[in-house]
TrEMBL record, chain A:
Signal peptide: 1-20
PROSITE patterns, per database record: PROKAR_LIPOPROTEIN (PS51257)
UniProt family annotation: Belongs to the UPF0065 (bug) family.
Domain of life: Bacteria
Keywords: Signal
Organism: Ureibacillus chungkukjangi
Protein name: Putative tricarboxylic transport membrane protein
Gene3D superfamilies membership: Bordetella uptake gene, domain 1, Periplasmic binding protein-like II
Top-level taxonomy: Bacteria, Bacillati, Bacillota, Bacilli, Bacillales
CDD domains xrefs: PBP2_Bug_TTT
TrEMBL record, chain B:
Domain DUF112 stretches: 18-436
InterPro entries: DUF112_TM
Keywords: Membrane, Transmembrane, Transmembrane helix
Source organism per UniProt: Ureibacillus chungkukjangi
Name of this protein: Putative tricarboxylic transport membrane protein
Keyword ATP-binding: no
One Pfam family matching this protein: TctA
Automatic annotation (TrEMBL), chain C:
Keywords for this protein: Membrane, Transmembrane, Transmembrane helix
Transmembrane segments: 5-23, 43-63, 75-108, 120-141
Keyword Transmembrane helix: yes
Lineage per the UniProt record: Bacteria, Bacillati, Bacillota, Bacilli, Bacillales
Domain DUF1468: 9-144
Protein name as annotated: Tripartite tricarboxylate transporter TctB family protein
Pfam families referenced in this protein's UniProt entry, alphabetically: TctB (PF07331)
Superkingdom as given in the UniProt entry: Bacteria
InterPro entries: DUF1468
Length: 337, 502, 144
């Protein structure tokens, strides 16, 4: 009996080490063709990207794809670690306290800005961090069930105008969340009054629209495209400057007659602690820019229906500041503390 | 379908896949057995190492881990009253008393057999009904979830021993503390201004405190520090009579209850085990023996929580909707592999879901076999002197609670609930209602409010939704019937005693 | 302590928790939109429920005639262990898990009658080794 259990443990150990070896091999695949960049960063050292969600979520995926691409570009090692907890507060604390040498970075979404402007207002400012690179933009879309009477945004708005406070709109998060603000930007421009229904995730809201429990879902393309293809859902509009490659028939809000500010978007990027040297910031920013341009990363973006982010750290910092302004503005309008 | 399934089987019998099944099951056992480490944490840990793997191997590894972890939770629940997962809480109610009577082998054998059989039957149900069941699950809107949660809460009157008033105090206490944090619908803060409390009181650490840590203090009361008795048994301590007693629960009831509840996204293994346990108790002729070591209770709880695993896979595979937290991470793992769970999966790559089905049919027996081999090993754990064991368990609880979200906050929550649990159990206040309220409270509030928001016509919507109506009526029956029975019994006893006196 | 007294203390404690939350509910900013009942309704309802049933329990226990003793065996040891665990957690926050456990596990064991040095040392080493192997090494879970 004892021998058997020892044997099992041994097998387990072997498998685990085999798995992790395989993983390292996969990750170091691009090492051979290391590009030579004039550098103050030492690529012998390991880079760590901390992610504030559990493994497998969209932000985690972005970080892992970006790390893979960055390894290809630099020949260095980029490790992704998950630090879930406190809606991102755990990861933020670790980033804020990390050495500002550019080797410890974090993945980010508007959640971090939300924390800085919201619950952690007294703890952090936007200046406490360096905003390095925008990895991707995940635009918002408006979807309805296939049995819904609405075929265009205009029909939807006309109905909502005739029946104020009747149309139920579901999406991720309470009032003041990214999806809620996106819907408010649209409904303000269309001058309609609707009812917001908060769900725990975008997936839950999509489930609810598939079951016809809500009239409209505010979602992201990746979450609804397969139901769009299978004909279960109709997508009425996309909150973006241009139409999406994978949804060529879906008009932008502007094309549908609603001229809204599309700078509000679900984006994901990379940030770090404040005090990173200007030259290193520039270097990191260009590394990620090159990483984003790699074929592998572009394929991943295409598969998950996201737009590429193309900002260097200066543009990205302005962008983050602008997002924060819009957010604070809406917090005040909606009465969220 | 059959051709697909046969192809699925042919994909499995490679060295690599069988190794994945074995590895997944073994890791799952440990993850499940350690308090604080849930199946979803286990899957999340393994997802990064599945990157370099072939999609089928990755999926098989993760799903085997998921199933074994749901079982593993029962091991520590039986031996130490320390449920390793939330869904194993119901296993502890009868499993731990059995272990204290010296029947740990029997309890463990019953739990692994009913887990295995449950998961197997449920896997067959999954293969046959994945798509229609997933479509049925879509009927669950906010109102249905609200009704389901109310039904779950109504089980308090069946589940709790002793004073109903004390159970209700526990229930309302649980409901009050889950309000702490950020309101889920409009986002205002409740009872907390800043810090960790904003995230609410985490359920799992509270459960570890109420069950495992409070039991640690009870272990220390023992002055002689003796070891637990384990009766010498031949084989595994499971007899034909035992099988006759529980076969219905084990093969029919628990798997069906577990599968159906598992399919409904968000309800999950915990609710499934509670419902199956209540059903077993309610329909049993020996109600009094439940909670004191009835193997039927163990069979119902363990059978149902394992059957919920294939259930949760149905909406995930057929519609791309996660049936549980673990399934949500599995969807992420599929995405990494460049696959998308949902209608596309069956059309474009049918070999993936069918290989997964086939792997369930193979991995469940393997998991059961490993579990049976482990029974006599696990029992050795309680042969450690109680005072030493108590300290080891509390240390593991600390590390486990920390793993909940990598911070000290849940560890403090666990300690507070452990101390609270010790004192209220002294006063015969059952801890079950607190647990039940914390599991279901959030579901009740958010879904009721969502239902109100969505319905533009008012409360009358209840009568236009049959599923919700039936669940509410069931809830009312479930709550009052046991009370009526209890009162009648008291009357009868009083009458009897009077007659005897006369 | 009698069972009756314990029951009264329990009821009063939970009654005060109920009142504490009830008063705090009125601090909640009650944002109501559409048909929503608002963030205040549910906590208000359950706080009242807690108060009512704690109140009933208080009444019945005051008039309880049975004066059964409430047994606390080894109470000093149990309380010392509770205090020990609190110190354990504080030490973990201050240093890290391994340092804290090297200090606290032997103390906790000593409180609970493990007095032989060999046994004490052995148990401590085994516990820490188990946690290291299973959590840190095999599963790669972060340790405090």
């Amino acid at each position: 009996m004892k021998k058997f259990s020892l044997l099992l443990m041994f097998i387990l150990l072997c498998i685990l080490s085999a798995c992790s070896n395989g993983n390292e091999n996969a990750l170091s695949g691009g090492k051979g063709e290391a590009a030579t960049i004039d550098t103050t960063l030492d690529f012998e050292k390991q880079f760590t990207i901390l992610v504030h969600t559990t493994a497998g979520g969209p932000t985690d995926l972005m970080a892992r794809e970006l790390a893979k691409a960055a390894e290809e570009v630099t020949g260095g090692t980029f490790i992704v670690e998950n630090r879930p907890g406190g809606s991102g507060a755990v990861q933020m604390a670790e980033i804020a306290n990390a050495k500002a040498d550019g080797y410890t970075l974090g993945a980010m979404t508007p959640s971090q800005i939300g924390l800085i402007e919201g619950t952690l207002k007294n703890q952090y400012d936007l200046e406490d961090f360096s905003w390095i690179s925008q990895g991707q933009i995940d635009p918002y879309v408006i979807a309805v069930h296939k049995d819904s009477p609405f075929n265009t945004l205009e029909e939807l708005v006309n109905y909502a105008k005739e029946n104020p406070g009747k149309l139920t709109v579901g999406g991720y998060g309470a009032i003041g969340s990214g999806h809620n603000v996106a819907w408010n930007i649209f409904s303000e421009s269309a001058q309609v009054e609707t009812v917001w229904t908060a769900y725990e995730s975008t997936g839950d809201a999509v489930t609810a629209i598939l079951g016809k429990h809500i009239d409209v879902a505010n979602s992201n393309p990746g979450q609804v495209s397969q139901y769009y293809e299978s004909g279960d859902l109709k997508i009425l509009g996309v909150m973006s400057e241009e139409r999406l490659e994978d949804l060529p028939d879906v008009p932008t809000y502007k094309e549908a007659g609603f001229d809204v500010d599309t700078s509000w978007a679900q984006f994901r990027g990379v940030y770090g602690p404040s005090g990173i040297d200007e030259a290193i910031l520039q270097e990191l920013s260009s590394i990620f820019e090159k990483a984003i341009a790699t074929e592998g990363y572009q394929t991943y973006l295409k598969n998950s229906q996201m737009l590429t982010g193309d900002m260097d750290y200066k543009e990205f910092t302005d962008y983050v500041n602008n997002q924060s302004k819009i957010m604070v503005n809406w917090y005040e309008k909606l009465g969220v503390e | 379908m059959l051709a697909n399934l046969i192809e699925g089987f042919s994909n499995i019998f490679t060295f690599e896949i069988l190794l994945m099944i074995l590895a997944g099951s073994l890791i799952g056992y440990f993850v499940g057995a350690l308090p604080g480490l849930t199946p979803s944490i286990g899957i999340a840990i393994l997802v990064p190492i599945t990157f370099g793997m072939d999609p089928i191997a990755a999926l098989v590894l993760l799903v085997s881990l998921y199933g074994a972890a749901e079982y593993g939770g029962g091991i520590t629940a039986i031996l130490l009253n320390a449920p390793g997962t939330a869904a194993a809480a119901a296993t502890a109610w009868d499993g731990y008393p059995l272990a204290q009577k010296g029947l740990a082998n029997k309890a463990l054998t019953v739990s692994i057999l009913s887990s295995g059989i449950g998961a197997f039957v449920s896997a067959i149900l999954l293969i046959l009904t994945a798509v229609p069941m997933a479509k049925f699950a879509l009927n669950f809107g906010p109102l249905e979830y609200f009704a389901l949660a109310i039904f779950g809460l109504s089980l308090i009157s069946v589940l709790s021993e002793g004073s109903l008033v004390k159970s209700l105090i526990g229930m309302f206490f649980g409901l009050v503390i889950i309000c702490i944090g950020i309101d889920p619908i409009v986002g205002v803060t409740r009872f907390a201004e800043s810090g960790s409390l904003l995230g609410g009181i985490p359920f799992l650490p509270a459960l570890i405190g109420l069950f495992a840590l409070s039991e640690v203090f009870y272990m220390l009361e023992n002055t002689k520090n003796e070891k637990a008795v384990v009766e010498k048994v031949k084989g595994l301590g499971f007899t034909k009579e035992d099988f006759k007693k529980i076969w219905k629960t084990m093969i029919i009831k628990a798997p069906i209850i577990g599968y159906v509840i598992g399919v409904i996204p968000g309800a999950g293994a915990t609710v499934a085990s509670l419902v199956a346990y209540s059903e077993a108790k309610n329909s049993s002729k020996e109600k009094e023996s439940f909670g004191k070591g009835n193997i039927q209770g163990v069979a119902a709880a363990e059978g149902a929580n394992n059957s919920a695993v294939p259930g949760a896979l149905a909406p995930m595979l057929a519609l791309g909707i996660p049936g549980s937290a673990s399934a949500a991470i599995l969807i992420g793992a599929l995405t990494i592999q460049g696959l998308q769970a949902g209608p596309k999966l069956f059309h474009e790559t049918p070999e993936i879901p069918y290989t997964l089905f086939a792997s369930l049919l193979i991995s469940v027996p393997i998991m059961t076999l490993i579990g049976l081999l482990g029974v006599n090993l696990w029992v050795k754990v309680i042969k450690i002197p109680k005072n030493i064991l108590a300290i080891i368990v509390s240390t593991i609880c600390i590390v486990g609670a920390y793993a909940y979200n990598n911070s000290m906050y849940p560890v403090w929550i666990m300690l507070i609930f452990g101390i609270l649990g010790y004192f209220i159990r002294k006063l015969h206040v059952p801890t079950t209602p607190i647990v039940l309220a914390m599991v279901l409270g959030f579901m009740i509030e958010t879904n009721f409010r969502r239902a109100m928001i969505v319905s533009t016509e008012g409360v009358s919507f209840f009568f236009t939704r049959p599923i919700a109506l039936v669940l509410i009526i069931l809830a009312i029956l479930m709550f009052f019937l046991p009370l009526v029975k209890k009162i009648r019994q008291k009357h009868k006893e009083q009458k009897d005693s009077k007659e005897i006196q006369v | 302590m009698t069972f009756k007294l314990g029951n009264i203390i329990f009821s009063v404690a939970f009654l005060s928790i109920g009142f504490y939350f009830l008063i705090d509910t009125f601090q909640i900013q009650n944002l109501v939109s559409g048909n929503d009942v608002g963030p205040r309704a549910f906590p208000l309802l359950v706080a009242i429920g807690l108060i009512i049933f704690s109140g009933i329990n208080l009444m019945t226990s005051i008039f309880e005639k049975n004066i059964e003793k409430l047994k606390f065996q080894n109470f000093t040891k149990v309380v010392l262990t509770m205090v020990g665990l609190v110190i354990f957690l504080i030490l973990i926050s201050a240093f890290n898990f391994y340092i804290a456990s090297i200090i606290m596990i032997p103390i906790l064991l000593w409180i609970n009658d493990v007095r032989k040095v060999t046994r004490l040392g052995f148990s401590t080493v085994i516990t820490i080794a188990f946690i290291f192997v299973v959590f840190d090494f095999l599963l790669g879970i972060p340790i405090p």
